[in-house]
Specification:
With about 150 residues, this protein is mainly beta. It folds into two domains: about 45 residues, no CATH class; about 100 residues, Immunoglobulin-like, CATH 2.60.40. About 10% of the residues lie in helices and about 30% in strands. It contains one helix and seven strands, in the order H-E-E-E-E-E-E-E. A four-stranded antiparallel β-sheet has the order 1-2-7-6, with no helix packed on it. Strands 3-4-5 form a three-stranded antiparallel β-sheet, with no helix packed on it. A hairpin with a 2-residue loop joins strand 6 and strand 7.
Length: about 150
Amino acid sequence: MPLHGFETPRWGEPWAAFDELRREIDGLLGSFGTRGPAPVRAPNVFPPVNLYDGADALVLTAELPGVREQDLEVSVEGSQLVLRGQRAIDYPEDASAHRRERQAGAFHRTVTLPYAVDGDKVEASYRHGVLLLRLPKPGKHQRRQIPVRTS
């Protein structure tokens, strides 16, 4: 399972691979053993995602600029969410590129959810290059307000 999408090794920089590995490990461990927010993941992870816990559902957003809806595949099995797809960047045949910073090609990203969700109830929308997934919580993970009675 690749940890990131389009990254290619930089053989001319011997320490770059170690720096990238350190960023990946920091991203995987998050704020383990510390208080406060987890460190920001490496900028070359594609697609970048946010996952937050709402009252009745997990919500995931993924930035997918330039990815057509028909080139995107989303699947969930238990607590594993998979984003897979293809981003193509077309240039005119007679064009000569002077700078290529936007990467094209296939990507595959697996996100581990905090608990299993029912794949049949997941809702997805895609607008302005942002994928929004609403993953309803199973009953045992939903928050419940408990009334407190006075005696």
